[in-house]
Predict the 3D structure of the following.
Amino acid sequence: MADIALRLLRPLIRVSSFLAPKTSGRLAFKAFCTPPRRLQGNANRKGAARPATTRLQASEAVSIPFPCGSVAAYVFNPPGADPVEQRPTVILVHGWTGAAVFMTAFVAPLLASGFRVVAYDLPAHGASTGSELNIPLGVASLAAVARAFAPVHAIVTHSFGGAIALAALAGTVPGQPVVKAKRLAMIAAPSSMTLVTRRFGAAIGLGARGQAALERRIHVVAGAPVTAFEGAAQLASVGLPALIVHCRDDKELGFQHAEALATAGPFARLVPMNGLGHRRILQAKPVVEAVTSFVTA
């Protein structure tokens, strides 16, 4: 939402969240779960995404059905690999308003290490179906991709993709299958969906009653309260080796998110970066090397 429009609407939203909190909560949830498709298309044509797009040409594009639609997946097999052979898979999960193409810097080094690599567009992103994305939808899509390309050796995520992977591995969403993997690498991931949700509410001007209604709506849709999606607690419950890469100057998700995730246990290792922000971090050579080394260890 444009800053000018937000400044004009914030007082109205605050009043409506007091007078009609249930309606305001539903509308806020809809906005919270709706990524701007048009902005995604523009982003795909800018900067680092241009050369990255050519990397998808080496993949096999497939459509993976899941209970709420289908997702576009891009499968990379090591050179000379038997297509019938079940090789260990590394799944790449992008973040909010991202796309599979943004994760392709990790493909070549992982292929060279003998892994099959699968990048996919989350629901309502890229070439996948849908108009909304939330954690239950993300978990359902990741479970479908993991089932189609088992066995899964590692999951590499960016931003909101990290929250989705943690919920999938920890089985936080009732009724969704638990995803199995041996390693998890999270780049610029949120540590707390409670903090993310409340930051969003503050940004749009939700009052206390509207914020409570938004969080009740999340509970209804997810089958669990927003507090169930605390990253460190979920990571501790899974206990698998985890790499946390985060930039100290990340303005979208501050470095404190990485520090909180690193408290999950001795199996979680934090690798701080500098000067790469929230999105350029995906193209940085030190990040690609750190993730590849962790996955292949």
